Amino acid sequence: MTLKANLENTTIQYFDSPRIESYTQLIEALDYVPQKSQRELLYCKSCWQAIATEKDIIQVNNSHDHNVCNPDGLWFHIGCFRLALGCHLVGKPSQHHTWFPSFNWQHSLCSYCHNHLGWYFEAPNQDHFFALILDKISEDDD
Predict the structure, then answer these.
(1) Domain that holds residue 91
(2) What is the CATH number of the domain that holds 134?
(3) What average pLDDT is seen over the chain?
């Protein structure tokens, strides 16, 4: 599915992940994430920092991945994740040109090399997810 504008009637399907309601809780959750095997981890392609796990994959509007276009005409192939503990957020939340109606977004960067990996989306009802640029993450750390 190719999406150029806002996604209508945004729905999020969550899988088996803990509920994180704030960025502070996201950081605190680092202490209790179980050890994952190497192949379950997803890495930043720039520095090989662990970013998320395969268990963090979710569906938004009935799909994990989406093709979206920003106002400058740049296209991104994004995947949706419940958590991305290897990322940190920058900037103030904004609804300007959001791809998901009622969701504010912030930039999501690799916590090690600070490469832009995608966006964090949060709605007023506290629903939230990460939309990571799939070309910038990898299953392999080799």
Answers:
(1) 41-138
(2) 2.170.150.20
(3) 81
